[in-house]
Amino acid sequence: MNKTKKIVLWISLGLASAAFAAAGLAKLAGVEQMHMSFATMGLPAWFGYFIGAAELAGAVGLWLRRTSIYASAGLFSIMLGAMYFHVVYDTAANAVPALVLALLLINIFVKRRGQSHVSAD
Question: What predicted TM-score, i.e. pTM, was given to this entire model?
């Protein structure tokens, strides 16, 4: 991987992990605004805490070579849910941050795809 691609990867990792760590911590702290979307969709309160824990774990997992593709795939699925929420229950324009994060996660997945194998040693 050339230097420019490495820089883009590191920026993607930094932005995505910071966003998911902040969102995950806010959900785990019980910030009401972070849980309102789950209530709007009729989901139980514990689901917001589950997503928060998944976001926080994913933020850490993005940095580990062996787990990076799995973390990016899991977080991508959460972003699909976020985009669905905004398009169906909110204004579509509010789905843009989730779309941007999804694009960062695709970049991370593609760049780290060949680095996640577990050796048999």
Answer: 0.90
Segment holding 94, helix H or strand E = none
Please name the residue that has the structure tokens 């970049």. Answer: 107
What are the tokens at 52?
């928060």
- Residues 28 and 53 sit within 8 Å (Cβ to Cβ): yes
39 Cβ contact partners less than 8 Å away, ≥ 6 residues apart: 45
In the chain, the amino acid numbered 3 is K
Per-residue pLDDT of the chain (121 residues; tens, 9 = 90+): 799 999 999 999 999 999 999 999 999 999 999 999 899 989 999 999 999 999 999 999 999 999 999 999 999 999 999 999 999 999 899 999 999 999 999 999 999 997 766 554 4
For residue 46, the number of C-alpha atoms closer than 13 Å in the C-beta half-sphere is 0
Q: Which residue's entry shows tokens 């048999």? A: 120
